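Minutes, project huddle
Topic: does the predicted pose make sense with FE2/S2 (inorganic) cluster bound?
PN asked that the exact inputs be recorded in the minutes so nobody has to dig through chat later. Recorded below.
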Amino acid sequence: MKNPYVPMPVKLKAVRLENETGDLKTFDLVFVNSGDAENFKFVCGQFAMLSINGVGEAPFGIASSPLTKEVLRFTVKKYPKGVLTTALHNLSEGSTLGLRGPLGNGFPLEKMTSKNLLVVGGGFALTTLRALTKYVLHEKNRPHYGDITLFVAARDPGEMLYKDDLAEWSKRNDIEIVQTIDKPVEDWPHKVGFAAPVLKDLAPSAQNTTAVVCGPPIMIETCIKVLAGLHFPDEEIITSLEMKMKCGIGKCGRCNIGSKYICKDGPVFTYKQLKELNSVTV
Ligand SMILES: Cc1cc2nc3c(=O)[nH]c(=O)nc-3n(C[C@H](O)[C@H](O)[C@H](O)COP(=O)(O)OP(=O)(O)OC[C@H]3O[C@@H](n4cnc5c(N)ncnc54)[C@H](O)[C@@H]3O)c2cc1C
Ligand code: FES
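Predicted holo structure (tokens), as shared on screen:
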């Protein structure tokens, strides 16, 4: 049996800066061994551990769709004192790193079929939501979902992630996209305001709609509050939790909330589950 702690070698095929601040980079990885590529089956919402030999390892959400076979995509925010994220940002194309996964549970795509989808994201948490959006918009999958609305929040236009994707999706007539930034900026053609109040004004009806909200904790908290106020049922509000992790496979006890391990039972939970775990303040 394969040792789950041993990473698979992956090569950095392409890397690019995502934002003006310069602390978000997107990495396209390819497996070194073709067998690893074939065996790596994941669902949107799952994450993987990325590692650099002699530096460390950390979890990152998978930003590419499972239907994109060519590369695995991650977007990484570099923290000033972050050991691994700084080292990742210093890598150049062609470097080899390690990957363990896929890990965690992912979004409940089966349960979401035939529903309308409201996807709300901000910051690097947009990673797994990008995977989800790409996946549901794929011609094979789009007929299985109702109306799709994507809310994207960023501090300012320069911090907006995945601008190419947003531009491409904006041309389609089968997805509604709302982009918002915190404060007014000249020539910004979209909304201004924090995610929660904009969501309150423009969210679609809760009727037959599943909402997926990922972002910084304050954004998740305020947006869930808005959605609950708009009568979205607790089990139809889905989010993804972030917590310090070590093993990523439910063995080390580093990431539990009550009886649940975020790495194994999550990171995706419904609001109903979070309430049962007493892990929400909303
Ligand atoms: C399931 C899951 C998915 C994730 N997906 C992503 C993703 O797609 N992209 C991404 O960029 N990150 C993601 N993260 C967060 C990522 O794992 C951390 O940023 C990473 O572990 C930091 O590693 P480091 O070695 O650079 O920092 P460390 O050396 O471990 O930390 C050093 C210092 O950096 C700062 N720091 C580190 N992490 C954070 C944080 N999360 N928030 C605020 N300050 C921090 C703190 O000041 C800390 O003291 C995810 C986390 C989880 C659990
Ligand atoms: S990280 Fe080890 S149990 Fe979750």
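Observations noted during the meeting:
- The first helix runs from residue 34 to 39.
- The mean pLDDT is 95.
No decisions taken; revisit at the next huddle.
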